[in-house]
Amino acid sequence: MPRQKTMEPRRNREPSELRSHCVSCRMNDSEIAQLDARRGKYARGEYLRLALSSALPPPAPPEINREAWVTLAKAAGNLATMATAMRGGEYVPIDEITTAIADFRRELIGAKL
Question: pLDDT tens for residues 97-109?
């Protein structure tokens, strides 16, 4: 896999940002396969650095939860749209609000999380 440049060139870094320590470890076949599966587009060392600093992006929801996530996202979007309208001074009928909240509650209860 070709190395991707994600950091700025060394000459522009502050002295405190220069990496001067090298850490190596041995992994068995299953450990390296697990690392490679998790790291995605990142180089191994970069992935481990990001994991150490908690800077990794959140993982995508598992396939089994994707359908529930999509359904809940739609219901939450409806509530957010109403909240934006109310903050903007628009009148939103109370029955519309209670219906949207009831729908969201029903989706939460029915979601298989």
Answer: 999 898 888 888 8
Per the prediction, the chain carries an average pLDDT of: 82
Taking the domains of the chain in order of start, what are their residue ranges? 10-52, 63-110
Q: What is the SS3 string spanning the chain?
A: CCCCCCCCCHHHCCHHHCCCCCCCCCCCHHHHHHHHHHHCCCCHHHHHHHHHCCCCCCCCCCHHHHHHHHHHHHHHHHHHHHHHHHHCCCCCCHHHHHHHHHHHHHHHHHCCC
Kindly report whether the global pTM for this prediction surpasses the value 0.90.
Answer: no
Report how far Cα 52 is from the mean position of its chain's Cα atoms: 16
* Tokens linked to 34: 């697990």
